[in-house]
Amino acid sequence: NAGVTQTPKFQVLKTGQSMTLQCAQDMNHEYMSWYRQDPGMGLRLIHYSVGAGITDQGEVPNGYNVSRSTTEDFPLRLLSAAPSQTSVYFCASSRTQANYGYTFGSGTRLTVV
Amino acid sequence: AQSVAQPEDQVNVAEGNPLTVKCTYSVSGNPYLFWYVQYPNRGLQFLLKYITGDNLVKGSYGFEAEFNKSQTSFHLKKPSALVSDSALYFCAVRDEVTGGGNKLTFGTGTQLKVEL
What we know:
Chain A has strands at 4-7, 10-13, 19-25, 31-38, 42-51, 54-57, 64-66, 76-78, 87-94, 103-104, 108-112.
């Protein structure tokens, strides 16, 4: 099993550009989420989904959109990139039940200049 | 609301000595608690979890954690540290009564440095 696959691994954007970070999982997990990791701030939840067609906002959703058309895929869209969105982004998935831990992707390092 | 605190940004320990990485939490109901480890330029890896039952939980790579309900703590421990344990460690919590699927709240992380 591939687990959780994130692409690209690295990306440099200019301010105002848009892009989509891809996330795919092959474990048939209902729950998927996006976090950003910044020094000294840990992981902060951007958006999450409890199943296909259902998404909700996390702690820091502004400037980001998500959709969940299939169980496998959960892309994160940056609408108009800003330097404040420079970060490392992680996608994670799990079964919905609370006693399941997360499986994380390897991350996307994004720099906005 | 659920929250978790890791009071130490960095913990230094000599190889062979015991290590402790601290975590305290706040939830409305019963907590589900997790520890994850992150090696440089990698994603987070699951170490162990507490859901219910025995307060001492054993996990991967010889790590264990002790759940203390009265002190609302879930400290990560290892009897004998290795240089290869050097990494960033995250504690995470989910409130049993929280909606939104399996939404975890993570701490800010503790950098563990094990020296020879």
